[in-house]
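thread: overnight batch results

M.L. [08:02]
morning all. the overnight job finished for the chain we discussed friday. pasting input first so we're all looking at the same thing
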Amino acid sequence: MSDWKAKRFWSETNVVEGDTGFELRLDGRPVRTPLKTLLVMPTRSMAEAAAAEWDAQEGVIDPMTMPVTRSANSALDQLMPQQEAVAAMLAGYAETDLLCYRAPQPQGLIDQQNKGWTPILTWAADRYGAPLITVTGVLPAEQPASSLSVYHRAVAAFRPFSMTALHDLVTLSGSLILALWVADGAGEAEAAWALSRIDEDWQVAQWGEDRQAAEEAALKRAAFLHAARFLDLSGGA
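M.L. [08:03]
and the structure it wrote out:
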């Protein structure tokens, strides 16, 4: 029984607008999440993207080829029941944001970090009126309480499906600021991912690439770019 896999059982996939959003229907029947929640999405574009994933299934259903559906399931089953806790966790990244911690050496890496990260922190300070302190090394910096409060409010304002995307943007990059930069439309996801990888890319340039690490990085990059797409499909923050 452990080898049992669901097979395609429907012939027609469509999207229906309901009172609370857009529902995905298979042969007229509503789709539900793994926890049996009705799969209702906030925008038609998201529902149509999910419908395209279901339409593309042939034979055995492969959830790994259905990222929009999986993220929508996560928004409904995992994020919504604990939205305040997730918001607090994500806002907490401002206390130890990747962009605030600069290498003590070598100078080449320091220059790359300063060139890539300082403009993003400046953008955030101007956009939110909430500057963060940068430090050299790994010892934690005590960030201004007023700034932390601002970022907590900014995260808490995200709607459930958008916060699901923000969650992945933050946790995959290690930076709330980079995630907000993308969510605000100030930066592209590809550029944000590259900025989050400055340290790792420096190590690769110095010592060469480890195949396993490269494969893991590729998977994380794909997930990061998907999160940015899911954010767009959700209608933004």
